Amino acid sequence: MAGGGIGPTKGGKEYPGKLTARVLLTCMVAATGGLIFGYDLGVSGGVTSMDSFLKKFFPEVYIKESTIKPSDDQYCKFDSQKLTLFTSSLYLAARVVSLCINCAQYLWMLVVGRILLGFGIGCANQSVPIYVSEVAPYKYRGALNMMFQLSITIGILAAGVINYFFAEIKGGWGWRLSLGGAAVPAIMIMIGALVLPETPNSLVERGKNEEAKSQLLKIRGVANVDEEFDDLVAASDASKLVKHPWETLLTKKYRPQLVFALAIPAFQQLTGMNVITFYAPVLFKTMGFGSSASLMSTVITNAVNAVATLVSIFTVDKVGRRTLFIEGGAQMFLTQVIIGIAIAVKFGVSGNPGELSKGFVDGLLACICVYVAGFAWSWGPLGWLVPSEIFPLEVRSAAQSINVATNMIFTFVIAQVFTTMLCHLKFGLFFFFAFWVLIMNILIYKYLPETKGVPIEDMHTIWQKHPFWKKYVLQDKGIAMGKEGHDDV
User: Fold this and answer.
1) What is d(CA 223, CA 468) in angstroms, rounded to the nearest whole number?
2) What CA–CA distance (Å, rounded) separates 317 from 410?
3) What residues in the chain have per-residue pLDDT under 70?
4) For the chain, which residues make up each domain, given as ranges?
5) Quick one: fold of 21-480?
6) Which of 114, 292, 455, 475 lies deepest, with the highest CB count within 10 Å?
7) Cβ contacts of residue 187 below 8 Å, gap of 6+?
């Protein structure tokens, strides 16, 4: 089968528009919604490696971890479903309660607090990518949308730095400050939400056409937006014919987009990146790093994550989504295989590494950094960008809900079973994730068309021209933009 690498539609529409300061500031404010997600991704792994935290809530894990000998099996010393539930519970609900978590006295208080905190994260992950995609000029949509991922990485980095310093607080209460710190990005999100303007798409949907056109003129910074505005109105009119967007989403003409709304977030988690994000300190301690060294190593990988995301921001609208997906996937696959082989040679099946040399530890950290960089400029930001831009208006909100729900479900599962997988699969865990990275790269190469430079309201054309998906998509432009047909599910 031919690859799916068609470029932007030739002869497609090119709406006028500049990268105005108004748009840039608006997208930056909206993207702060990723800070709380990133912070909570990064903070849990740090506090679960703090002895004072383990003593209070997971004494059995603390006893196992503190009494294990270098000659014992290192793979299983953190294997605890209760411990992973603390991390994974956030994604069952995925702000208001962030201040309450740092006052927790019992495990159930931690879990309930993180479940409630997940509601705020779920709302942010649902709304921010769509909001930015609708506000941004299509030529800069990729870079501006990736500010959301950049905010996530900044939140992760901030959590790592805070964990490192708070772990040194005497009295063993630094973990409370780490968890309570989630209140800061929560407050930022609430303030930002009060000042953000409505998108033209949203205004048109509510019948405020004059206000929508005025807003479109402001954010595009040009004197004439008639063509884009007319297409927005046409898309809105078509969307109103769709009475049941969830049912419509299952029809054949949306089959291509639906596949990727499910596959991309699932594969994003099957890269294994969130294992690094959640449990980096735990993973580094398993590999022989000391407590302080494991937290510092986490800060290093988090910094690489944030810097590498900038690479994606500056290149995504030039080299395209497919190129970054495939290159990043290849980079992650190779480094995971190398890491798996290195751990297999040193730790073996027994989990007894003996004495670890500085060269081995430094090399392992370097490989993890290369892996993190590959994710940070590919599957990390693109996992949010592509699903938010490929759906037409009439099913966009429903589709983004599926995207976020799939992401949260797989995040929960990976977070919950990681320590058990590490205990049983041992070094094979890295080969497990490498396998899925290979599969997802094949999927992208064969089936994902390039969306770079395609106006969001003209996105249906890329599926009509794709060698595989065109048989699912109705060729009539009017129908493809939203008029309900009677094709089979």
Assistant:
1) 40
2) 28
3) 1-13, 45, 49, 64-126, 278-283, 286-291, 351-354, 474-489
4) 21-480
5) Growth Hormone; Chain: A; (1.20.1250)
6) 114
7) none
